[in-house]
Design goal:
single chain; alpha+beta; three-stranded mixed β-sheet; 3 strands
Length: 85
């Protein structure tokens, strides 16, 4: 929904109700968009963030058993003394 700033002054409470319901309200001045009223995303609790991180980690592909860890993938380039082979 788009509404001019002057109209919005008279109906701020209604616009806030619309935003709370999930609608985006765009304020205009002289026909140009200048601001948006949008619902505030609720902040996640520490426990909710932990659960979300666990869910994302669970979706990650599991490394194959024979995979070489990244920190060891270039070891063949160096000798036992740590210098380039």
């Amino acid at each position: 929904m788009e509404i001019s700033v002057s109209e919005a002054k008279a109906s701020l409470t209604e616009l806030l109700h619309r935003a709370e319901a999930g609608e985006e309200v765009v304020l205009t001045r002289r026909g140009h968009r200048v601001a948006r009223i949008v619902p505030v995303e609720p902040r996640l609790t520490r426990e909710q963030r932990r659960i979300l991180i666990e869910e994302i980690r669970a979706m990650a592909p599991k490394p194959a058993v024979d995979d070489v860890p990244a920190e060891r993938s270039q070891d063949f380039l160096y000798g036992d003394d740590g210098l380039p082979a």
